[in-house]
Structure formats: structure tokens, C-alpha cells
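User: New here, please read:
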Amino acid sequence: MSADFHGVFPYLVSPIDASGRIKTDVLGKLSDDLIKAGVHGLTPLGSTGEFAYLNRAQRETVVKTTIEAAHKRVPVIAGVASTSTADAIDQAKTYEKLGADGILAICEAYFPLKDNQVEAYFRAIADAVSIPVVLYTNPNFQRSDLTLDVIARLSEHARIRYIKDASTNTGRLLSIINRARKMKVFSASAHIPAAVMLIGGVGWMAGPANIVPRQSVKLYDLCKAQQWTEAMALQREMWRVNEAFARFNLAACIKAGLQIQGYDVGDPVPPQAALSAEDRKVVEGILASVKNLT
């Protein structure tokens, strides 16, 4: 499997029932359908995958199921997250053995961490595996962020070749592109993906791509072809999905959207809650409005 990651990588949901069982059949079908819709890769255990709410066995099941469903048709980048460096290393090694093509590295923190400690965490993960590592930073939810200096230093590591930044600050992405020239940048759903592609991004990793994969791939293709007028017209229409979903819990929103589309993904893991009937109608309306976008 090529390690040149680019394009649309849905942050997969983690289908789960009330007893905590991962619905492997549902996850397998979703993964297969997304690949058939043209996505360029799959990312289990991202934020939409509720990694923070799953135990170790559940996480491994999600990663294993995704890898088996992908069947080497597209790369699978598995999320690794922990407050402990040793645990993160163990997760990364496990997922590599399962067949993951890359690692999405997330730093959780209870106590604040200094820059050198954050850097050491990511460097240790990259040292422990032989597959590419994608840094993930989301300062809106993480206690310890990656500064531009840390990102620039980490970009010199042979296996730390990508970053997915969810800061909502597109100017920060341009700073990363300018300062860490060896590192390729993925957008988040918090950014406007077409704008990130315009400044040099290579794609996006985002929860909404679960429910609008075909439209997301079309947007990527237009950006790659530098058909910016057409790309921005499609982007404006698709941005309604992001605007609406910013109002709700992301996992609850994406799971509701998938349920509407016929996937029995279950509810978000408690203490999160499913959308109310009123909020679900909002999601139904959004999906109806973007269904036929091409």
C-alpha cells in the first residue's frame, strides 16, 4: 500500500450497541460503501470515532474490522491516543501488526505539558513504528497543543510526514506549510477544505465525509484540477453540513446522519446522548439539500 496519503479520509464512526459490542458488520459495510464512493482512505478512531469513550478491546476491534474491510484497496490510518507515552506506543505497535498503513497520533493530557514533553510523546510513537505518522492537533478540545516550533522540529522525523490540524485557523495551516516544508497538511472539517487545498493542502480528514463521501470526492477532484470556480460553488453548498453540525455533538450528528441513510450504527457512547427528534429533523433536512450535489 502506497504511503503517499492524500484525498478524502472519513473519520469513521464506531458503530456500537447498548451493551458495548462493536457492530463489526455495520462498520464493514460502511467502510466498503465509502471505498466504493471513491474515498482515498479510512481513518478509524478519529474524533468522530469516539476514541475517548472506547476501551482498548473496542478500539482494537474497530481498527481490525476497518483494515479487513479495506482489504488493501485504500490506506487505513488508525488513531492512537493516550495520556501515557508507553500506552500510545503499545497501541501504535498493535495497529501496525494488525495491518494499519499509518498512525494518526493524538496526545491526550490531564496535567499541562511543556513543549518538549509534547514533542517527546509524538517522537516516541514515530520511533516505535515503521509506518508513516500523522500528527493530529485540535486545540479546541486538547489540553496540550502542538506549537509551530514543535511541529517544525517533528517534521524532520523520517516517519512524521503529515499533520491534520483542527484549529479552525487557516492562517496557522499556512504557517505550518511555510515552516515545515517536509510535512503535508490535511484539513479538518473545521476549516474550509477547498481553501486549504488552494494554499497547498493534500486533502482532509473529517467526520462529515461519512455521510457525503461522493460529494467530498467530487470537491477534492475539482480542487486537484484547479477548477476553483466550480470547487467553491460546490464548497459553498457543502459548507451547510459543517455549519449545521457545529451546533451539535459531532459523533451524535454523524451517527444520526448514517442512521437516516440506513446504517444501524447505534447511539453515541454515554455520557454523550443521541440527537433529539427535533435536531434529527435538522440533519434530515441538510442531507436532503445536499443529496444530489455533483
Notes: Strands lie at 7-10, 77-82, 102-107, 133-137, 160-165, 184-187, 203-206. The chain has one domain: 7-225.
